[in-house]
Design brief:
This protein is an alpha+beta fold. 25% of the residues lie in helices and 31% in strands. It is found in: Cell outer membrane.
């Protein structure tokens, strides 16, 4: 009987395990095909019985993130961080966790996770952009309130985005239901598939012709002559069977858009989407996740050589593209590039950025609130002459999931921030004004921002950028110790004043730095040449003196105690002196500035004599190192 019960329990357990396995397999199929809305309830159900399964947690967090449910994404990314040592490419998940936190204005915690990302991969471009912009929230605030934005009258309760100037009308993409009540829904968002619509004189209509099909149609761009429409369409890859995006062309025939063809730079291996055209009609810009890019999706440009003939796509480079996602480009009539990104520092998720991308050393700027928010802000377009335009966002309190907003621009964006560091240099007595001191301003990465000399009254002034944030003021003058002072330059305090005190270098010639600087003794173990760990910081202090005073040389004098014989002690002291010399050379000091002298037992600090037994403390005093300054 017991045997039958055990067999029954085993069968039930195996059945439950099989059911869970089938559930996970089904969820993974939905996830692999971007059907996140279908995957979410399956992962949730699976995790109720398998709460620590990392792969399911990871995919559920991503599913919520990609469908815009950032509250649930934050919850599951936080849980994933418990198991972060088990996750491959954890930097990507840390970044999405940081983005999810920003969606609820938890900027301090979001920045803490960017710091964690940097510890794992300091070369990550997203981390470097964050670290290089410590004032990013202040800079965003500086450019905020330059627009007045309101919800557009043609929004529906579905997804509405990708507005495009369409002669005197607005062309946009929407998943709004039509009279035919399209039942087919996207597995990604669980909304009807997207079509292109025209808003003209207060009336709404579908785009005429053959552009709208059975899949998604979105993100269109009209050629300057009004005869060619480029647009994005979803399709399934012939190679993988998975959904991808492609750019298509349509030609105007009467009032109908016909003759639909693919552009030549599409591929079955990656997505190509979201076209925009410059005012000359000779260059097309787009987004793609093709191989060779910098991140999840990059911005590219391609030359239009003729009707349906294109050059080779060219990546817009790392100043624009990050390891995150750059998408939805727009080129204005003044040749400014606007685009959305989650890789550049922003308020959260996708923000709108702008740059004069063809100028040398251009900078990328966040255009601030109210265009940007803690949620996705995308598909920005602007009429530079009329100072108005449109963008889309899934921010709170809209009519639908994504809404289109129209705006008027009140002021131009501020793209510079001039500042000045002014100060005076005095001696230790606070009275002696020090002239001809060299003052160098650097950022925390060591890049020189400017330099100057102090004048006859000890004063200096160096112009700088208040975008840099923390900066170092380095002052050097012969006969004085080098000074390094950290200051903070900000948008709110563009002028920074500082007074720097220089201390005279004490006369050091023929003196021991250990005694002069009141340093702890350098120690070795008894009868060996291995430096004790505590002594390294003492030697580093000597190295600092040598770095700050390039004309100084030293003699490293090594002494032993009285134990063992004369020959052994002399050899041991020479070896110890050379160990220290080699350590200092490895720190970047030229060996030409370092003499060594093994003194053995001939200069005892405390001589007990031959008939007195020395204490261990006296042996330690005798077993010493001296760093004697021999030239200056």
């Amino acid at each position: 009987m017991i045997k039958r019960i055990l067999i029954l329990i085993l069968v039930l357990v195996q059945t439950a395990m099989f059911a869970q396995s089938k559930l996970m397999q089904k969820a993974d199929i939905y996830f692999a095909n971007y059907s996140y809305a279908g995957a979410i309830p399956l992962y949730e159900k699976h995790l109720k019985k398998n709460s620590a399964e990392v792969d399911a947690i990871k995919k559920l967090a991503d599913s919520y993130f990609l469908t815009g449910n950032f509250s649930r994404a934050e919850f599951w990314y936080e849980k994933l961080m418990i198991y972060r040592d088990q996750v491959e490419n954890i930097e990507d998940y840390m970044f999405r966790y940081s983005q999810s936190l920003k969606a609820f204005r938890q900027y301090k915690k979001a920045d803490e996770w960017m710091e964690e990302l940097g510890k794992i991969n300091p070369e990550d471009r997203r981390y470097q952009l964050y670290k290089g912009n410590p004032q990013y929230l202040e800079i965003i605030e500086m450019n905020s309130d330059r627009f007045i934005a309101v919800n557009s009258p043609f929004n529906s309760r579905y997804n509405d985005f990708s507005p495009t100037f369409f002669n005197n009308d607005i062309l946009f993409s929407s998943s709004m239901a039509e009279k035919s009540a399209r039942k087919v829904r996207s597995g990604w968002s669980n909304q009807p598939f997207l079509n292109l619509y025209v808003y003209s004189n207060g009336k709404l209509s579908t785009l005429k012709g053959d552009v709208n099909g059975s899949g998604h149609e979105s993100s269109a761009a009209l050629s300057p002559d009004g005869t060619t429409l480029y647009f994005t369409r979803s399709t399934n890859s012939i190679n993988t069977g998975k959904g991808i995006l492609k750019i298509y062309m349509a030609k105007l025939q009467g009032s109908q858009w016909k003759n639909i063809t693919e552009v030549s730079f599409n591929s079955e291996d990656f997505s190509t989407a979201h076209p925009t055209i410059d005012k000359t009609g000779k260059r097309l810009f787009f987004a793609s996740n093709r191989e060779g890019g910098f991140g999840e999706s990059d911005l590219y440009e391609v030359e239009i050589l003729g009707d349906g003939i294109f050059g080779e796509p060219k990546n817009l480079g790392p100043a624009i593209n990050t390891e995150g996602r750059e998408s939805f480009p727009f080129i204005s009539s003044t040749n400014r590039l606007y685009f959305s990104s989650n890789g550049h520092p922003g308020l959260g998720m996708m923000d709108v950025f702008t740059c004069d991308f063809e100028k040398p050393n251009f900078q990328v700027y966040n255009i601030g609130e109210p265009v940007n928010s803690t949620k996705d802000d995308i598909t920005f377009i602007v009429n530079e002459a009329d100072k108005n335009g449109y963008f889309a966002s899934n921010r709170d309190f809209g009519k639908g999931a994504y809404d289109i907003y129209q705006f008027n621009r009140k002021e131009q964006l501020r793209t510079d921030c001039e500042s000045v560091v002014i100060g005076s240099i005095v001696g230790a007595d606070q009275k002696n004004l020090i002239k001809n001191a060299t003052v160098t301003l650097k950022d925390l990465n060591g890049n020189v921002l400017g330099s100057s000399k102090s004048d006859g009254s000890g004063s200096f002034s160096i112009p700088t950028s208040c975008f840099v944030g923390q900066q170092e003021v380095i002052v050097e003058r012969d006969g004085y110790e080098k000074s390094v002072t950290t200051i903070k330059v900000s948008i709110k305090t563009p002028e920074v004043e500082t007074q720097i005190t220089l201390n005279e270098v004490a006369p050091l010639l023929y003196k021991d730095l250990i005694t002069t600087m009141n340093l702890a003794p350098v120690t070795f173990g008894d009868k060996n040449t291995k430096l004790n760990e505590d002594s390294l910081s003492v030697i580093d202090a000597v190295v600092k003196v040598l770095q700050d005073n390039p004309s100084v040389s030293i003699n490293i004098r090594s002494h032993t105690d009285l134990r063992r014989n004369y020959t052994f002690n002399l050899s041991l002291s020479r070896k110890r002196a050379n160990v220290i010399k080699n350590y200092i050379v490895r720190k970047g000091i030229s060996s030409d500035r370092l003499l060594t002298e093994g003194m053995g037992e001939i200069e005892l600090k405390v001589n007990c004599g031959f008939k007195v037994r020395c204490s261990e403390e006296i042996h330690k005093q005798n077993r010493r190192i001296e760093f004697v300054v021999v030239s200056k």
